Amino acid sequence: MHDLSAQIAFILEIDKLKAVYRKTMVKADSNRHENSAEHSWHIAILAQIMAGYAQRKIDILRVTKMLLIHDIVEIDTGDLFAFADEQDHQAQEQKELAAAKRIFGLLPTELALEMGNLWHEFEQAQTADAQFAKGMDRVLPVLQNMSNQGGSWKANKVQQSQVLKRNHYLKDIAPKLWQYVQQEVEIAVEKGWLLDR
Amino acid sequence: MHDLSAQIAFILEIDKLKAVYRKTMVKADSNRHENSAEHSWHIAILAQIMAGYAQRKIDILRVTKMLLIHDIVEIDTGDLFAFADEQDHQAQEQKELAAAKRIFGLLPTELALEMGNLWHEFEQAQTADAQFAKGMDRVLPVLQNMSNQGGSWKANKVQQSQVLKRNHYLKDIAPKLWQYVQQEVEIAVEKGWLLDR
Ligand SMILES: [Ca+2]
Fold first, then answer.
1. Is A109 buried (19+), middle (13-18) or exposed (0-12) by CB count in 10 A?
2. Ligand 1 centre from B156 Cα, in Å?
3. Domains located in chain B, CATH noted
4. Start and end of every HD domain (chains A, B) (predicted)?
5. Looking at the partner chain, which of A15, A26, A64 has a beta carbon nearest the beta carbon of B19?
6. Cβ-based neighbours of A27, under 8 Å, separated by 6 or more
7. What is the C-alpha to C-alpha distance for residues A83 and A142, in angstroms, rounded to an integer?
8. ipTM > 0.85?
9. pLDDT tens digits along A52-100
10. Is B40–A35 a contact, with Cβ atoms under 8 angstroms apart?
């Protein structure tokens, strides 16, 4: 029963991710902010739907697991806006390492290792699986904001160069999606949803 | 580009699942109601963590896909409380079939078939994968309510016999979890979180 208690402790701990809110808004729910749990669900499905655009061979089960757990550390650190300053991103990284240790450490050893390793792999983004997963995390807000009159871009005065820099990542990972993002960013600038800088 | 448009239409459509609220409450977020998107995320992770308790051989990728999409039909139908009347469940089933056709039908043919078939398989619950997935869907609210002073059980005057009947399903699928549920239900009755009927 020891393992089961540890597993349940982890499952109950991650319930808290439903209380971590992001800048992105949920159009269908009166434009309230999106939380990181429902966001993780959304990109896990996105990965199933877009797997065919991956340039390299990916293992969709590993990609999916990474996407499901990639934000869990935010329970301790909160979400950092994708377009925050570089120094904020660096400070966040240290805090996330400690959070991963604490939260995945709730699990029985074998699962703690598996989940912790998947989280590190996602963060380091050196493998095809991690890179595709990260690409999904970057492209979803583009779709959401484009369908929501600019959404969090407009609300936070984001520049087109920031979105292009962040999604340029897709160029080698899923070229067709990168092409799509470029078209959409152009439309967003025309509509005034992104700043023309 | 035709396929990509269809894929994006589906991804944006399912954003609406974040606006479908269930009876279960999120303790960490001031006991607001849980939505079906974040619930789907939570049970997808639960399946990874509890896979070792499956009595039969399961394919965890198929289980995970089923759990990610199993509630999407609620975009059209809304969530029905697990302990609603039998006739409400039957009426819901018909509406869900139409919803599956509409929503998965947004996808390009091959993906529409794959996702539609996974959804049907989950609903019919005849395979080891679907049964384990369904077991996860049933057991998670037990964990949530036990950690939340009875949560939606207490708020809706649920009876212990209802929870036992619903989770008896786990007996052959994951016996260790069924044993755990029985213990917890006993505690819940003692504490007055479930009615002693
Ligand atoms: Ca449901």
1. exposed
2. 16
3. 2-191 (1.10.3210.10)
4. 14-178
5. A26
6. A144, A147, A148, A151, B15
7. 13
8. yes
9. 999 999 999 999 999 999 999 999 999 888 888 889 988 899 999 999 9
10. no
